[in-house]
């Protein structure tokens, strides 16, 4: 009972904050705070240019960025503590609570460290006996991968589950663990001599990223402006 009361009270307070920000912004005051959630690869690729541009346009606005998978953000979205998130999503129990606007798709591939003994493998089957690190099984994209492995009839040995993008990359770079990561990492100059894409013939599922927000939310003018910048940058990077 106390938990339900706390959640209800938190939602009311966040809605009051948002209403106050909206009123001030419509009166011409370019201030307030925006709270957003981003998937790790979005934070790495899409976010920097968008946030820099937004900050140049609205230097008085504070932006809080939470990084992670959608399931880690559900409660904050519900309570209004996050204004929106850009993340992957697997159809399920949240369809009635949130709106989902498709922004872009990203291809994924199997990665290993440079010099890995399996670096020249040409099929997933050849990689099944190696050690793997994967994103949390609670994640949306992981569910798509599970379907892919079910069709193959075998699943990799996932001994390490990484909750963060950076820990997954670090482990792959400095060990013999394999993982499935965004293809764009193969073109990252910072990773060029550390990571290699394994040229398997199977095509892995693409990850679809959505703008996700509460269905009953009316965004403030500044939050709407930030969303517009994310939409534009999405079209430029992923036409």
From TrEMBL:
Question: Which segments of the protein form a coiled coil according to its record?
Answer: none
Sorted alphabetically, the Gene Ontology cellular component annotations on this record are: cytosol
The record places domain LysR substrate-binding at 28-233
Q: Which domain of life is it from?
A: Bacteria
Which biological process, per GO, is one annotated for this protein? regulation of DNA-templated transcription
Pfam families linked:
LysR_substrate (PF03466)
Q: What is the protein's name according to its record?
A: Regulatory protein (Induces abgABT, used to catabolize p-aminobenzoyl-glutamate)
């Amino acid at each position: 009972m106390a938990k339900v009361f706390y959640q209800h009270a938190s939602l009311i307070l966040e809605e009051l904050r948002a209403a106050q920000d909206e009123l001030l912004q419509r009166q011409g005051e370019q201030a307030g705070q925006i709270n957003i959630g981003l998937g790790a690869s979005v934070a790495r690729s899409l976010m920097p240019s968008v946030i820099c541009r937004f900050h140049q346009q609205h230097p008085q606005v504070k932006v809080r960025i939470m990084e992670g998978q959608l399931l880690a953000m559900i409660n904050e979205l519900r309570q209004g503590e996050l204004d929106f998130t850009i993340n992957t999503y697997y159809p399920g129990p949240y369809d009635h609570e949130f709106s989902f606007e498709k922004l872009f798709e990203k291809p994924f591939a199997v990665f290993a460290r440079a010099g890995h003994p399996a670096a020249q493998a040409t099929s997933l089957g050849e990689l099944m006996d190696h050690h793997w690190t994967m994103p949390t099984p609670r994640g949306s994209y992981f569910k798509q991968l599970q379907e892919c492995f079910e069709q193959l009839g075998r699943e990799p040995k996932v001994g390490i589950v990484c909750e963060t993008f950076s820990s997954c990359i670090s482990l792959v770079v400095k060990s013999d663990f394999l993982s499935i990561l965004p293809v764009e990492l193969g073109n990252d100059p910072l990773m060029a001599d550390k990571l290699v894409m394994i040229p398997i013939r199977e095509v892995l599922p693409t990850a679809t990223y959505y703008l996700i927000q509460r269905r009953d939310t009316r965004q403030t003018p500044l939050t709407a402006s930030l969303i517009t910048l994310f939409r534009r940058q999405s079209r430029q990077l992923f036409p």
